[in-house]
């Protein structure tokens, strides 16, 4: 198991569109274990492969308090959605930022599990929001890109400044 480095916005690699997974083998399963470990260590509720610079359609999600509900999504597609809800989101690639985003309230998706078995899942509430957020990552979209240009500009400036300070601290 290994903790993977997480790309930080506005890293342009976060805008890569992930390709479908063709073969679900031990390499993919190892990546999934590492992604889950990385997500738990960072206290996140979801992580897309894009965020660890692997551009394949894989995401892990666990919205439980006690890490008991790991959901692995491979080649997931939302096949139905309904309603609207506004909820506050954060992202491990956009540290320190929480913003309200409008999403579908309910989704149904089709995906493969870590053994290549197809399944369907219906979700609402936090899980539905999380699924939409992670699938956006795989399409190269970060949640703050739903915000106004002005707000997004401020967030970019703040994060670039923070990254610079972190680099300075590392070399002091
Ligand atoms: Ni995210």
Structure description:
30% of the residues are buried. Helix content is 31%, strand content 25%. The protein has helices at residues 26-41, 125-138, 149-171; strands at residues 46-48, 58-61, 71-82, 85-89, 99-103, 106-112, 118-124. It is α+β, with helices and mostly antiparallel strands and 172 residues long. The chain has three helices and seven strands, in the order αβββββββαα. It has a five-stranded antiparallel β-sheet with strand order 1-2-3-6-7, with helices on both faces. It has one domain: Peptide Deformylase (Alpha-Beta Complex). The site of nickel (II) ion (NI) has 5 residues, from helix 2. Nickel (II) ion binds at residues 91-93, 133, 137.
List the helices and strands and how they pair.
Layout: H1 26-41, E1 46-48, E2 58-61, E3 71-82, E4 85-89, E5 99-103, E6 106-112, E7 118-124, H2 125-138, H3 149-171
Antiparallel strand pairs: 1-2, 2-3, 3-6, 4-5, 6-7
Residues 91-93, 133, 137 line the site of nickel (II) ion.
Task: Give a short account of the largest sheet.
Answer: 5 strands, antiparallel
Following the backbone from N to C, one meets helices and strands in this order, namely: HEEEEEEEHH
Number of strands: 7
Strands in their spatial order, largest beta sheet = 1-2-3-6-7
Domain tally? 1
Distance between the termini: 31 Å
What spatial form do the alpha-carbon principal axes imply?
globular
Mean pLDDT: 96
CATH evolutionary superfamily: Peptide deformylase
Bound small molecules, by name, code or SMILES, are: nickel (II) ion
State the helicity in percent bands.
25-40%
Name of the top-level CATH class: Alpha Beta
């Amino acid at each position: 198991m290994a903790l993977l480095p997480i790309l930080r916005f506005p890293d342009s690699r976060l805008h890569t569109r992930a390709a479908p997974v063709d073969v679900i083998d031990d390499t993919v399963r190892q990546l999934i274990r590492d992604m889950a470990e990385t997500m738990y260590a960072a206290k996140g509720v979801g992580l897309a492969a894009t965020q660890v610079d692997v551009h394949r359609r894989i995401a892990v999600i666990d919205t439980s308090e006690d890490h008991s509900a790991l959901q692995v999504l491979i080649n997931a597609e939302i096949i139905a959605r309904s309603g609207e809800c506004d909820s506050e989101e954060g992202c491990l690639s956009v540290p320190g930022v929480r913003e309200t985003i409008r999403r579908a309230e309910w989704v149904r998706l089709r995906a493969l599990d870590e053994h290549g078995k197809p399944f369907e899942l219906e979700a609402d509430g936090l899980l539905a929001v999380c699924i939409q957020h992670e699938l956006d990552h795989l399409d190269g979209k970060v949640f703050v890109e739903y915000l106004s240009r002005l707000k997004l500009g401020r967030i970019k400036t703040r994060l670039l400044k923070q990254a610079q300070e972190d680099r300075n601290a590392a070399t002091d």
